[in-house]
Amino acid sequence: MSRPVFPDGFDHYFRAWEAKIGAFLEFSPEPPVCPLDPSVAVPEDAAAAVRGLPFAVKDNIAVADFGLTCGSKLLEKFRSPYSATAVKRLTCAGAVVVGKTNMDEFGMGSSTDDSALKTTNNPWDVSRVSGGSSGGSAAAVSAGIVPFALGSDTGGSVRQPASFCGVVGLKPTYGAVSRFGLTAYASSLETVGVLADTAERARSVFAVMRGKDQFDQTSVAYPEAKSSGKKAVIGVLTPESLAEALSAGKGGEAAAGEKLALLESEVEKSFLLTKERLAALGHTLVDVKLPSLKYAVPTYYTIATAEASANLARFDGIRYGVRPGYAENPEELIDKSRGEGFGAEVKLRILLGTFVLRSGFQDQYYNRAQKIRTGIRRDFDRVLSGVDAILMPVFPTRAFGRGEAGLSPFAQKAADVFTCCANLAGLPALAFPSSVENGLPVGVQVVGRALEEDVLFDIACAYEAAHPIARPAGYKAFWG
Ligand code: GLN
User: Fold this and answer.
1) Crossing angle for the helix pair 417-425 and 239-247, nearest 10 degrees?
2) What is the best residue among 301, 350, 416, 423 to mutate for testing ligand 1's pocket, by most ligand atoms within 8 Å of CB?
3) Which of 102, 113, 157, 301 to mutate to test the pocket of ligand 1 (most atoms within 8 A of CB)?
4) How far apart are CA 396 and CA 424, in angstroms?
5) From ligand 1's centre to the CA of 335, what distance in Å?
6) One digit per residue, pLDDT tens: the chain, 480 residues?
7) Cα 416 to averaged position of ligand 1 atoms, centre (Å)
8) Which residues are tagged catalytic?
9) Whose CA is nearest to atom 10 of ligand 1?
10) What is the whole-number distance in angstroms between the Cα of residue 265 and the centre of ligand 1?
11) Alpha helices in 358-447 (DSSP H)
């Protein structure tokens, strides 16, 4: 593995930004040299685009000799003995890991404020969150510290922070990138994704990472690229569809729901502008409806918490994690380890997950959610049989503030409606910056057919060529 070439002045640039945004849990500009692995063959043309570039990795993705905290106290001291397949493929292509980024604990959250270890701020306005759960990766790319970073997307955790920080975020088709080395949160929903400074960069990184892996039985061989260069037919959710999807969040908590029953006006403005610009670029826009969208959030939180409660059962303080100073017996040791190690949001989700899986309740919650999930997938398949991609907002708001200026934990969950549906359906979704409104970036996303990421990249690259991505004040383009 080669060392990254850090340009003159980078050290000062990094320190100044990092002091303001706190994106990294660990940064090592002179990383340990990993031996090349002959079993990992990356095609030369794909490798060339990332060779010599530094990148950051969300701290729930394993990199040998770095920490793997998952943003949790429980794993604060844990070091990874091996690297995730996605990381290995990139390092074998000549890219270099320079650090691990902050995140909501175990990927549960939308702000990175649910990290037990550190606070991360948005490079556009440090009083606001960077989004989550891959908020550290998004902030690092947005500030120009690295040209790209890896994240994980279970319900929007790559796309939402990308939108908040004004960068590109890809959630690939389920199975397109190996999950080996990604700490499991909700296995049937999650993917390793990319946050990058440009759509073209995200495309190159994805080209290196994807493909079948013997260590992940859900990974698939990626077919020949589908890039056609043709103009696309893009389905756009009607205003009624958007309102219907958002109003589903109204029931639970009146005040929070009211706030979200509509898109924030800046987000709405940006969405309309994107439509106009895509039409001006020659794409055909047609109105579409996805009536199943209103069920996405409850379905997502039933399935995600059920899987989380099973996946997180491995953290018992015996094999990994904080070990209490004293315990009478193994049960007490496990109780104390989890009691001290897990944060409030993680405990809430484990409880919710064990509740929906309880015998006698499974039919009512978990099994029902699985059926609705199939319905959502069919709804997308129906629409995508007539269009190349579906244009949707990423999140109803721009980057939010903290305290009173923030969103309650309930409102944050209700706001996952436009992102978690692609995870439930297993489809690829690409978020890219659409415009800057009142000083903050806004993103949009296109959702496409399985294994047709290139169609989405073509749309985003053409948009970006006509409307270059804006950068936060103080940004310096080090990476070409
Ligand atoms: N907001 C979602 C959640 O809290 C995002 C999760 C994710 O994609 N890791 O579950």
Assistant:
1) 90
2) 416
3) 157
4) 19
5) 26
6) 455 668 889 999 999 999 999 999 999 877 655 556 767 778 888 999 999 999 999 999 999 999 999 999 999 999 999 999 999 999 999 999 999 999 999 999 999 999 999 999 999 999 999 999 999 999 999 999 999 999 999 999 999 999 999 999 999 999 999 999 999 999 999 999 999 999 999 999 999 999 999 999 999 999 987 677 789 999 999 999 999 999 876 655 544 545 566 899 999 999 999 999 999 999 999 999 999 999 999 999 999 999 999 999 999 988 888 888 899 999 999 999 999 999 999 999 999 999 999 989 999 999 999 999 999 999 999 999 999 999 999 999 999 999 889 999 999 999 999 999 999 999 999 999 999 999 999 999 999 999 999 999 999 999 999 999 999 999 999 987
7) 8
8) 58, 133, 157
9) 108
10) 24
11) 366-384, 409-414, 417-425
Residue in this structure with the two tokens 């440009």, named with its chain if needed: 198
Which ligand 1 atom sits nearest the alpha carbon of residue 189?
8
Nearest C-alpha neighbor of 445 from the set 408, 416, 409: 416
pTM over 0.90: yes
- What pairs with residue 100 in β-bridges? 26, 57
CA 398 to CA 164: how far, in whole Å? 6
